Amino acid sequence: MAQSSLKGLGASGDVIGHRMSRRSLLRGAAVGAGAVTLPALLTACGDGPGGNKNEVTVGSNASDSVPKKAFAAAFAAYEKESGKKVKVNTKDHNDFQENINRYLQGTPDDVFMWFAGYRMQYFAEKGLLTDISDVWQGYSGFSDALKSQSTHAGKQYFVPYYYYPWAVFHRKSFFASKGYQQPKTWDEFIALAKQMSKDGTPVAFCDKDGWPAMGTFDYINMRLNGYDFHKSLMAGEESWTDSKVKKVFDTWRELMPYYQKGALGRTWEEAGQSLQQRKTGMAVFGMPHPGSQFPENERDDIDFFAFPEIDPQYGQDAVEAPIDGFLVARKSKNMAGAKNLLKWLGKPKAEDVYLQYDPNNVAVNTGADTSQYSALQKKSAQLVAGAKQISQFMDRDTRPDFASTVMIQAIQEFIGNPKDVDGLCNKIERQKKTIFSQAVS
Amino acid sequence: MALTSRRAGRRRLRRFTRRDLVVLGVLLGIPVLLDLVIVWGPTLASIGLSFTSWDGLGDIHWVGTDNYKNLFTNYPPFWPAVRHNVLWLLFLGLIATPFGLLLAVLIDRGVRFSRFYQSTIYLPVVLSLAVVGFIAQLILGTDQGVVNTILGHRENPIDWLGDADLNIWMMMIAASWRHTGYVMILYLAGLKSVDPALKEAAAIDGANARQTFFRVVFPTLRPVNVIVGVITVIEALRAFDIVYAVNKGRNGLELLSVLITDNIIGEASRIGFGSAIAVVLLIVSLGFIVTFLVQELRGARDR
User: Fold this and answer.
1) A101 vs B167: CB contact, 8 Å cut-off?
2) DSSP character at residue A260
3) Residue B185's closest CA among B139, B133, B120, B138?
4) Whether B12 and B108 share a structural domain
């Protein structure tokens, strides 16, 4: 009540003081209401001009300070060389991911950052990306594995920029002081975990965020059943009730007693810090995770070993190494500028500039300068180079709706109650069937 | 007589000139249009979409009641979410709200430092629930939380926010911390407006303090009770930000609002399926709204 009369008075301020008629009050209110709604309508219709052809806009999800600075340096190097302008629009990493659908359908930037593999192919299938096969023809130094991760239906849509491997990370000095040896096989791994647990420094484990534990599932599956099975399981072509899948969970359960307790309430940052504080012995992580939680002068102490072999048939062939890179949206306004930028970003030199500022990743291009690498980067590069197959990560290798609405919950349920594997696999399979029955295109 | 009636008729004809009609039409039209576009449009769209399968990008496929079948039989987080929403409602309604009333009564009686208590207890209300969620994490975190640091069980810490049987209670306590203050202020305002003469009359009639409160004061608070009841139901049904801030509403913290978000937001979203959950939440809300309106209208007629 008070509000509506205020609105009338406020909108027609000149009326106050005169004898106010009902009609003038109404008119005032109408003008007021129009003043409120009109601008909103106008901005909804307006859609600024295409912009400067000398300026390329880049949509960035690199909201953390280290990669943000590193990207800024890379784009500055491009600006200097080409004389063109790069305008970076950085959004929070998770927000960017959650809004990617609307972003690509709305007014995307000319170039945007995204992930390789299934996550890219999904949008390519939807026709939201621009085919950049012509740019790819000028590239050299990308392996076939990289090319296949950038390809959908024979065409390239993605420029790989860097990647980082997943492995078992630990402190070098901690292993030395305790006399621990890096294990090669699953039995040695379990024995080491058991010893660590006995020594009061268990294996670090966290899954509050929902995704960190996926890395362990992926690795056990690839070691036990091979990369091909893992890939088709992720593509929804295998049954989750298959005894092979149940065996993954059963194998995983052997490790459970030696984990830090309370994994579901722990973030990956906290787990990384416990590793740094020597409260835990080792952890399955991606390379940037421990790196970002260790103070700079202790980063040399980080070491890792490849996830141990389970079935000799598959050895340690597969490496989980998510690739990040650049794409061009279908609705890009400055296509020529975008492709010009991509041409530059695919060069080894472009990766060198970036990695100078972000030592937690490894260049994808074989021509990149590795002389500046830290020992850890060198080892990572070797690990990835020696891989027979490269997987991305569960949430990049399968349908995002399946990963986020089924698998996160399922793995958390398994961590909370590792005993009921049959029930769990049945639940996953039933949900998988409904989700994968909805066609992608 | 005839003259006056004719004049009256002419006046009725003249009461709304064209201009009046236009002005009124615009003034009524804008709110009605806004109401249709902002409230009814999305509601009907959700209901429509809940019978389809759509990922937000491609074509929309009609799937009939498949989404609902899936929801009830093949979506493990659904029933826990319903349970948690009901639990949330009961906890706020039966514990937090009465506690807020108790605090209001105590402060109204004039305990010492009542102004101090009043502001301290009301303070959390200015925080958004997401912020309350962050505070809860600082206090209850497994490794670095205040409580576990004090308890010091390094070997086997209590996993306040990760244990699926425990975390929902922690969240409800945190949410109640805020809710109690809100309820207290509302009741305090109500209690201040209760006519002291009523209490005196009751005392003269020989009623003790408890009888005075439950038989005399509480019934006169009826308007406040209605508001508090509505707020409690709304808070319970819209609870979202606090659990989303803590662990994205998974692993024991499932709520209907979270499941809707999970399925609709993000790449490759299941918009039809998410809409079906939204429709369930709508029906639950309508149940409360209809009950409330019926009560209110009946009450108004009785008075």
Assistant:
1) no
2) P
3) B120
4) no
Name the residue in chain B with its Cα closest to that of A261. Answer: B156
From chain B, pick out residues whose CB is under 8 angstroms from the CB of A37: 30
Residue B271 maps to a domain? no
Q: Residue A338 has which token pair?
A: 């975008």
Q: Do A263 and B77 touch (CB under 8 A)?
A: no
Q: Is residue B99 part of a domain?
A: yes
Q: Domain range for residue B151?
A: 83-225
Asked whether A159 and A150 are in contact (CB, 8 A), the reply is yes
| Pairing outcome for strands A55-60 and A85-90 | parallel
Same domain, yes or no, for B30 and B95? no
B218 lies in the same domain as B91: yes
Residue that terminates a domain, selected from B195, B225, B255? B225
Domain boundary among B178, B193, B225: B225
Calculate the CA dihedral of residues B77, B82, B87, B90 and round it to 10 degrees.
Answer: 170
CB contact under 8 A, B262 and A105: no
Provide the 3-class DSSP secondary structure of residue A439.
coil
Flag whether pLDDT at A228 surpasses 80: yes
How far is Cα A99 from Cα A226, in angstroms, rounded to an integer? 34
Q: Indicate if B208 and B149 belong to the same structural domain.
A: yes
The one-letter code for the residue type at B198 is L
Query: How does pLDDT run across A405-433, given as a tens digit for each residue?
Result: 899 999 999 999 999 999 999 999 999 99
Tell me, yes or no, whether B24 and B110 share the same domain: no
* Of B55, B70, B159, Cβ closest to residue A265: B159
pLDDT tens-place string over residues A364-379? 888 888 888 888 999 9
Structural domains in chain A, CATH included, are 55-164+323-375 (3.40.190.10), 166-320+399-437 (3.40.190.10)
Nearest to A122 among B155, B250, B268 (CB): B268
Total domains in chain B come to 2
B131–chain A nearest CA distance, Å: 18
**Domain-embedded: residue B197:** yes
* Residue B89: inside a domain: yes
Query: What integer is the mean pLDDT of B173-186?
Result: 93
Q: What distance in Å separates the CA atoms of residue A331 and residue A127, rounded to the nearest whole number?
A: 10
Which residue from A97, A209, A210 is facing B267, i.e. has the nearest CB? A97
Q: Would you say residue B275 has pLDDT above 90?
A: yes
Total residues belonging to chain B? 303
